[in-house]
Amino acid sequence: MNGEGNSGPVFADPITADILLSVNGDERPITVDTRETLLDTLREHLDLIGAKKGCDHGQCGACTVLVDGRRVKSCLTLTVTVDDREITTVEGLAVDGALHPMQAAFVERDAFQCGYCTPGQLCSAVAMVREVADGWPSAVTADVSGPAALDDDEIRERMSGNLCRCGAYVNIVAAIKQVGS
């Protein structure tokens, strides 16, 4: 109760912050509510609608974007935490109108059906290939003393945070293997 009867809860005024977002190579000064997620900022304020709100709990990966080259679930990331960091969305993967090699492989391998999860799958796959190249092991990496072999099991493990409700996994794995090999 708010002390004035049963008229409902009273919410505090939002606390805002002025920050500088670097998104897909463009610097964007913006004022955000400190409680706002990066996903909401991208979609509602910057008109970058590639990242999708799937579960809004960080479980499906549809909202995956890159922050300083690392994959993050933008539905769980507060916008104020990425002030002055480099954010790449699916819209920023292509360069000068040419598809990123991962995007081209997804098209060539028919690695999508409805396409809802595809932006998150692409961002995650791009970062995952870089993680392998940098020597980061996963739970299924057989030999942690060197780079992991990018086989089907390794790709599936590393992409396990990105769900595809249509079941295009076989083609997603083939597309990633094509680029990562």
Strand order of the main beta sheet, please? Answer: 2-1-5-3-4
State the total count of DSSP E strands: 5
Strand content: 5-15%
Shape: elongated
End-to-end distance: 60 Å
Structural class: alpha+beta
Q: Please report the first level of CATH classification, the CATH class of the largest domain.
A: Mainly Alpha
- SSE order: EEHEEEHHHH
Oligomer: single chain
Total discrete domains: 2
The whole-angstrom Rg is 19 Å
Unreliable segments of 5+ consecutive residues = none
CATH topology of the largest domain: DNA polymerase, domain 1
CATH 2nd-level architecture of the largest domain: Orthogonal Bundle
- Put simply, the count of helices is 5
Protein model, in words:
The chain is α+β, with helices and mostly antiparallel strands and 181 residues long. The longest helix is centred in the last third of the chain and has 16 residues, at 118-133. It has a 5-stranded mixed beta sheet, with helices on one face. It is built from 5 helices and 5 strands, in the order ββαβββαααα. The protein is elongated. The chain has 2 domains: 16-92, Ubiquitin-like (UB roll) (Roll); 101-180, [2Fe-2S]-binding domain (DNA polymerase, domain 1, Orthogonal Bundle). 28% of the residues lie in helices and 15% in strands.
Keywords:
2Fe-2S-bd; 2Fe-2S_ferredoxin-type; alpha+beta; Ubiquitin-like (UB roll); DNA polymerase, domain 1; 5 helices; 2 domains; 5-stranded mixed beta sheet; 28% helix; 15% strand; iron-sulfur; 181 residues
